[in-house]
Amino acid sequence: MATKLTYVNGRGRGELIRIILAGVGLEYTEEYLTTKEQWEELKKSGKLLYNQVPLLEIDGLELVQTGAIARYLARKYNMYGSNDQEAAKVDMYYEGSRDFYSVFIAMVFTDENECLKKAKEVMVPKYLPVYEKILETGNTKYLVGDSISIADLGLLECLLAVEEFLGMELMDSYPILKEYYQKLKALDRISTFLKGPHRKMRNTEEYVATVRKVLY
Boundaries of each GST N-terminal domain copy (predicted)? Predict the structure, then answer.
């Protein structure tokens, strides 16, 4: 069965799923929600457990909730550590990245300048030193062991936003993290994704208007 992601044509809570799908090398199609009528029909279909998207249809499953989708893909494609202890670390670092990224998610519905001010003054000083220390003390290629995990891809989403919205110079004080980030971006599958059609652009007024019109 073909894999399909249903969401709006923007980043939001769907972009991490796209990054993970790219990371595991899985081909998929996307269906974009563009009208209120389309959204109402999808809710009537019974595919949405909580009447929320993103929705990933894969392996005969209809999965919602970004975290659940991420973990399903991680378990299926061996991106969840090699034992229970490593899986616990993957969870900790992944959840930290979700807290970090929350300020960028908020830019759809709140003032972008206020969000970026909080990102620069609060979130970057809180989270970048933590991940710098993890990489420094772990002495491994990735956050957990020598294999890429959803913790790495969750952090990648955050660092892409830092570079795009705040500038790479904010990483200059974290040389290990900066080098790690550059290596992640250079991985074949990630590099291809970042240059390809599945990578969504930053929010536009048109995108925000569509989200408000369709989902709310």
Answer: 1-81
